[in-house]
Amino acid sequence: MIRIHKPASVIARRTATRRPQFGLLPHVIHYNVGNRIAAACVLFCLTISTCLAQLPDFTLVAEQNMPSVVTIVVKKDIPAADQQAENNSLNPVVPDDSELKDFFDGFFKENGESMHVRLKGSGLVISSNGYIITVAHLVKDATKITVQPGKKRKYQAEIIGIDDDSDIAVIKIKTSALRTPVFGDASKLKVGEWVLSIGAPFGFEKSASLGIVSALNRKLSNQNRVRYLQTDVAVNPGNSGGPLFNINGEVVGINTQIFSNSGGFQGVSFAIPIGTALDIAKKLGAKTAL
C-alpha cells in the first residue's frame, strides 16, 4: 500500500486558512446579538414615545380655566342639638403630626349653645357680572359666604337660589371682572373619555386632578331627577361645586358628591351634567354666559 504523506507546510497552510473562520465566529455572534438588543431598545423607546404622545395634555386647559374657578369659604352656626351629628359628618380624624391638623382645627369652634363651622368648597363663574354656581349643601344655612376668585381678591356673596333636590345653588358677588369658561355638551361624552377637575380639595385652592368618565346617565338612589356623570377623578372635601372639563377645555359637569365608606375619595365620584346644572341655575335666577 502506498501512503501519501502531505508536507507539513500544506497542513499548516490549510489550518491557517481555517483558523480565521473559527476565530471570527464569536465576534459575529456578539455583533448580531448587539444589533438585536439595540434594535429592541429603539423599538421600546419608539413605543413609549408613541404612548406618551397619545396621553392627554391638559396643561393649556388648566391654565385657561383656573380664573373661572373660585374658592368659597362658608361660616355656619350649628345648634347644640345637632352638634354630635355634624361632628360625625364634618369633623375628620386627622393625626396630630399631619400638615392638615391646623387646617381642620380652624373649621370647628364650639361655644355653649352652638358650634361655629367654617367650610371651604368650590364654585364656577357662569357670568362675568358675578353669578356663580356651586352646591347647595355648602352654602345652605350659611351666616357668611366669602368668594375668592384669586389670592388677593375676596368678595362677600349673597344666595340667589337653592335647589335641594339637585344640590345646585347660585350665589352672586358684586363685580363685573370675572372670567367665564366655555360650556360644552355633556351628552357627547363617552365612557373612557378623559376629564379634568379643578377645585379646592381640603382647602388647597386651584388644584387639578385627572381621570376618565366611568359611566353615563347614572341614577343614584336618593336622586330621581338628575342623571349623573360617574368618573374616577379624585374628588375630595372642598372639590364640591367645582367644574369638570373635557379635553377641549369645555365645562361638562359640576362635581357634587362621592361614593365612599371612609369619607375620602375611593375612585367613584359624581358630577351633574353642565346642561342640567345651568338649566336649574337659570330657574333659580342666574344670568349665565349662554
Compact overview of the structure:
The chain is an alpha+beta fold.
Low-confidence stretches: 83-94
* Beta-strand residue percentage: 25-35%
CATH topology of the largest domain: Thrombin, subunit H
- Range of helix content: 25-40%
Order of helix and strand elements from N to C terminus: HHEHHEEEHEEEEEEEEEEEH
Query: What is the total tally of β strands?
Result: 15
CATH class of the largest domain: Mainly Beta
- CA radius of gyration: 32 Å
CA(first)-CA(last) distance:
114 Å
Task: Characterize the overall form.
Answer: elongated
CATH architecture of the largest domain: Beta Barrel
Task: Describe this structure as you would to a colleague.
The protein has helices at 8-54, 59-65, 83-90, 101-105, 136-139, 274-283; strands at residues 69-79, 108-110, 114-125, 131-135, 142-150, 153-156, 158-163, 168-172, 182-183, 194-199, 207-218, 228-231, 243-245, 250-258, 269-273. Strands 1, 2, 3, 4, 5, 6, 7 and 8 form an eight-stranded antiparallel beta sheet that branches. Strands 10-11-12-15-14-13 form a six-stranded antiparallel beta barrel. The chain is built from six helices and 15 strands. The chain has two domains: 59-64 and 181-274, Thrombin, subunit H (Beta Barrel), CATH 2.40.10; 66-172, Thrombin, subunit H, CATH 2.40.10.10. It is 28% helix and 33% strand. The protein has 290 residues and is an alpha+beta fold. The longest helix is centred in the N-terminal third of the chain and has 47 residues, at 8-54. A hairpin with a 4-residue loop joins strand 13 and strand 14 (250-258). It starts with 7 loop residues before the first helix and ends in a 7-residue tail after the last helix.
